[in-house]
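Consider this record:
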Amino acid sequence: MRKRVLNSRSGEAVDVDADLLVDPDAEVVLSKDDVHRLREEIDIVLVILAGGFLGTLCRYELSVHWSQSSTAFPLTTFTINVTGSLLIGIILTTIMEKMRPTRYLRPLTCVGFLGGWTTMSTFAVESDHLISSNHLGIAMAYIFATMFVTPTAAALGISLAHLLPGMQKEVVKALEQ
């Protein structure tokens, strides 16, 4: 619903957002069923919020205690993103393939905590800073290392999860088919 105010001179109702550029496809209209469903799933949102808060807090604490020069290879953020990718591979594979379905575990750990732990926005800001401060070699090494190592770490995490007790039988069955 658009906000309207009265024009002090003419007394007419004026749309305060009329001058904003708005994508017409971005208009969101929720039905009563959608609102009801959102209310039923607020617990999931709160679990993600809690996990994200903890993950972000842990990332912040690590970055405070492991500070470095703004013109050096951003090893802190690189390590955070690589470990997050590795853990997502391990945890998500274990949850999806080995555990009974639960309502809160995946949203808490993967979406919340590891979503807060990893930080592609900081990766982008640090890359931009390195480029704009004429440290192109470090920037390119950082960008290419991140783009190669993080998915490799996720794949390694998936492989490691398959080595966990009880997972080997399922892997062998899948390979035999």
Notes: DSSP finds seven helices and two strands in the chain.
